[in-house]
Design goal:
The protein has 325 residues and is of the alpha/beta class. The protein is 26% helix and 22% strand. The chain has eight helices and 14 strands. The longest helix is centred in the middle third of the chain and has 15 residues. It starts with 5 loop residues before the first strand and ends in an 11-residue tail after the last helix. Bound molecules: NADP nicotinamide-adenine-dinucleotide phosphate (NAP).
Length: 325
């Protein structure tokens, strides 16, 4: 078997997710970053041990690399991923929202849910950060019919500020976010809502839509997402039932852990590609609810880590390569 390293290009390599892909590839046994693009830093050295200089995206020869990670802003990124694939790159992963509707023939890449689609694919749309946690938490429950879909699921989510990207924005200044906590995109107006709705419908078998209210919040930490779910369940179901269904569903998954006891927090997962899920009973008369908490790192399982996981599958490598460091 040929063991020479595969060559990766990271497009938009100065951004938060691009930097994280570069960092993961430094520890990857089979793939190395051969190209890193930046418009603002072209010609400058990439920080780190490799002798690599940023180049402009226009100057990349995509037929000279095996895998491309497109880490540009939504609106720009998808077309570069398609250009990379069509230009001869073996495979391309787009981290933006551009191709999540299947544009360009992209497949939606949550390996634990739709692994067969990703394996060997030439173009993968990496999921949004918030949808990643919600879909992984709800998949076992929707697949097993444990959710009462006549009532809405309530999902409150909080993300660290790196979720907003590195470009300067007044709302994201230290003076604006520090020691504050705020909701945004309320009323199901966040741009991830259609992606979440499509994922839930697919998990529920394409029947009636799964109603939900999704409210994101900005948490003044650098990284991490914690999502609190109020899951309407059929009468008689408890947290133990949801835990058992989830534990069975993810028994063979290295990156999804279901807690039998207690609820995860950010410090349990930040810095890793893992998603941690826990459930708790709610003392409530009337229509039953079970509370679920999902925690993960927005830049890893929510972006760069999942992108490397997808790339490993696309390239026929072991899915975990480079992700346990
Ligand atoms: N941050 C997260 O937690 C997260 C999670 C999931 C998905 N995503 C998605 O991943 C993609 C990258 O996100 P990010 O957080 O890494 O973004 P970012 O920190 O803002 O980085 C984007 C990079 O793209 C480059 N770029 C090239 N053309 C640009 C343009 N016209 N405007 C702005 N930047 C441009 C910039 O580098 P130069 O200026 O040096 O060229 C910049 O470093 C986005 O599509 C985002 O939606 C992000």
């Amino acid at each position: 078997m040929n063991k020479s390293p595969l060559r990766a290009a990271v497009v938009g390599a100065t951004g938060y997710t691009g930097q994280e892909v570069l960092r993961l590839l430094r520890g990857h046994p089979r793939v190395r970053a051969a190209v890193a693009t930046s418009e603002s830093q072209a010609g400058h050295a990439v920080r780190g041990p490799q002798a690599l200089r940023y180049v402009r995206a226009e100057d990349v020869r995509f037929d000279d690399v095996d895998i491309v990670f497109s880490c540009l802003p939504t609106g720009e990124s998808g077309e570069w991923a398609i250009r990379a694939r069509d230009g001869g790159a073996g495979a391309a992963v787009d981290l933006s929202a551009d191709l999540r509707d299947g544009q360009g023939g992209a497949v939606y890449g949550v390996p634990e849910l739709w692994r067969a689609d990703v394996r060997g694919a030439a173009l993968v749309a990496n999921p949004g950060c918030y949808p990643t946690g919600l879909l992984l938490a709800m998949a076992p429950l929707l697949e097993a019919g444990l959710v009462d879909v006549s009532r809405p699921l309530i999902a409150d989510a909080a993300s660290g500020v790196t979720g907003a990207g590195r470009a300067a924005k007044r709302d994201m200044l230290f003076g604006e976010v520090a020691e504050d906590y705020r909701a945004y995109g309320v009323g199901n107006r966040h741009r991830h809502v259609p992606e979440i709705a499509a994922g839930f419908a697919r998990l529920a078998g394409g029947g009636a839509p799964v109603p939900f209210v999704f409210t994101p919040h900005l948490l003044p930490v650098r990284r991490g997402i914690l999502e609190t779910l109020y899951v309407p369940v059929a009468s008689g179901l408890t947290a133990a039932d949801l835990t058992a269904a989830s534990a069975a569903r993810y028994a063979d998954e290295r990156f999804v852990e279901v807690w039998a006891d207690g609820l995860p927090s950010l410090r349990d997962v930040v810095g890793s590609n893992r998603v941690a899920i826990g459930f708790a009973d709610v003392a409530l008369d009337g229509a039953p609810l079970v509370l679920g908490v999902v925690a993960f790192d927005n830049l890893l399982k929510g972006a760069a880590g999942q992108a490397v996981q997808n790339a490993n599958l696309m390239l026929g490598l072991c899915e975990e390569e480079g992700l346990f460091q």
